[in-house]
Amino acid sequence: MICLLVAAAGLLTAAPAQAKYASIVVDAETGEVLHAKNSNTRNHPASLVKMMTLYMVFDALEKRELKLNQGLRVSRRAAGMPPSKLGLRRGQTIRVKDAILALVTKSANDVAVVVAEAIGGTESQFAQKMTKKARRLGLKRTTFRNASGLPNRRQLSTARDMATLARALIRDFPQYYDYFGTKTFKYRGRTYRNHNRLLRSYRGADGIKTGYIRASGYNLVASGVRNGRRVIAVVFGGRTPRSRNRHTANLLDRGFKRLSTIARTYPAPPPRKPTAIAARKAREAEVALSLAAGPTPLPPTAAPNVRQQRHGDTPVETEAVTAFAPQAPNGAEGLDPAALLAELNAPEPEPAAGSSHQPNSGTLTADDLAARPLADPEMMVTDAAVPPPVAVESVPLVDPQRRAGSGSLAAAPADPAAPPPAPPKPANSAAAAAGTSLELQVVEPRRKPGPYGVQVGAFYRYRPAQQAAQKAVRKAPKLLADAELSVTHVRGARGKLYRSRLVGLSKRNARQACRKLRSLKFDCMVVRVGRSTVAAIPAGPARMFIATN
């Protein structure tokens, strides 16, 4: 009887374990589930475990605990791991970069142990760190027991957790995610091809990892991008590599088709700020209304700021004139609003006979600056008060030799041989805060926008999404100064889901920006966007627009 029981037990253990089929398809940006079948069933992940191993490697690189060119020593235990392997020998070293490529393409078990011992001391301790990190990432039903994915009855995961891990890799380490798209890897004279054949056969596929043991069947986590949208598909329990790949491709197709049917509407943009011309007309209307009440005495304050600026080849001399311009503290009386209004509307004087000035030189009025086309198309006129140290020049609108008389501005003949007056100290901060001086703001030509951007969150309300993007600009002003703020929304499981993005960046700048934001504990993910229809409006260092990509 005992012999029969033992024989039966031997047959049971020798028989291959029947893997349970499971699959899931998610939108990589929002996490919305587009398809699911047994997605919470726990199965053996096999070499999909190496995705978590690589997450730990990327995390160590980010924290500068490892370097890409650093050599990792091969232990006796690592050298003795079963295939698939590189065939490393005890005492050898392998660079971190080569270790990453070996894990991605060859799925080398000996390399997995090498990096586990380098980060965790032992593979067992490293597995504990992996499980702890997995809980923080939201992998609720996953337990790791080794770094390679070799059979262990307590090493289990789900299709949903693997999709969450794939999203975390793309979101947290966009600067390293390209490794998963490596098709071939050369090491010591040998070339290894990536086991993920979808990289060659499926349009838009760019990662991530395959896996197989008898207890699990053929597993695959795949990601692809089409029309600026990324889809992640996970399959557990495939019968053959070919059938698994074909089924995963069908799931990706289904996911992209589902995304294309989701209604995409966009919120109305916030109201635009008034233009410089509209603001000038409003001030002139205020001056006209004040004429009926008579002149109003003005409090004494500092003299207006006087500077000189060249407009093309013509020296332009103007004065910081306002509807209620203050007087210098020398006892002079306030200005008459009627005289000021006449000064603003006065036609350009004819040049004197024999004068060397061209017709476009001399005194410019406010109307001239508003109506006359400027030489530089990127230059615009604004009346907004700009705090220092912004590159804004306030220059006088009348001859600097004029002096304020009693109730009006008196003209004095200018000496052409006299040198231009030296610029005085900056104007009183109170006058600058009032925003009443007419200023020329020179806008630097923007670089050509790139096809990449960063996503800093997804929200169920528009306002938090807008605030998140603006906060990201304040966190990394140098890297995101030329970015454009984009708030779009898609249909989520609970309604509209607003995506907060800063787009128009190159791939390199987007990666640098995400690296900076993550170092400041700010969520960030690099995204590739398609062509957009842009309605630009000022939004601080960035410009906000509502895109239709």
Task: Show unreliable segments.
Answer: 1-18, 264-268, 301-335, 354-414, 426-444, 531-549
Global structural class: alpha+beta
CATH topology of the largest domain: Beta-lactamase
Cα gyration radius (Å): 34 Å
Largest sheet: 6 strands, mixed
Shape descriptor reads elongated
Describe what you observe in this structure.
Helix 2 packs antiparallel against helix 4, helix 2 crosses helix 5 (109-120) and helix 4 (96-106) crosses helix 5 (109-120). This protein has helices at residues 2-14, 49-62, 76-79, 96-106, 109-120, 123-137, 159-172, 174-177, 198-201, 241-261, 276-293, 337-345, 366-371, 429-434, 462-475, 507-519; strands at 22-27, 33-37, 71-73, 93-95, 184-187, 190-193, 205-213, 217-226, 229-238, 308-311, 314-317, 362-363, 379-382, 392-393, 403-404, 409-410, 439-442, 452-459, 484-492, 495-505, 525-528, 537-539, 542-545. The model is unreliable at 1-18, 264-268, 301-335, 354-414, 426-444 and 531-549 (pLDDT under 50). Helix content is 32%, strand content 21%. It folds into three domains: 16-261, Beta-lactamase (3-Layer(aba) Sandwich); 276-346 and 362-405 and 428-442, no CATH class; 452-545, Alpha-Beta Plaits (2-Layer Sandwich). It is α+β, with helices and mostly antiparallel strands and 549 residues long. The strands form seven sheets. Strands 21-18-20-19-23-22 form a six-stranded mixed β-sheet. Strands 2-1-9-8-7 form a five-stranded antiparallel β-sheet, with helices on both faces. It has a three-stranded mixed β-sheet with strand order 10-11-12, with no helix packed on it. The chain is elongated and about 100 Å long. The protein is built from 16 helices and 23 strands.
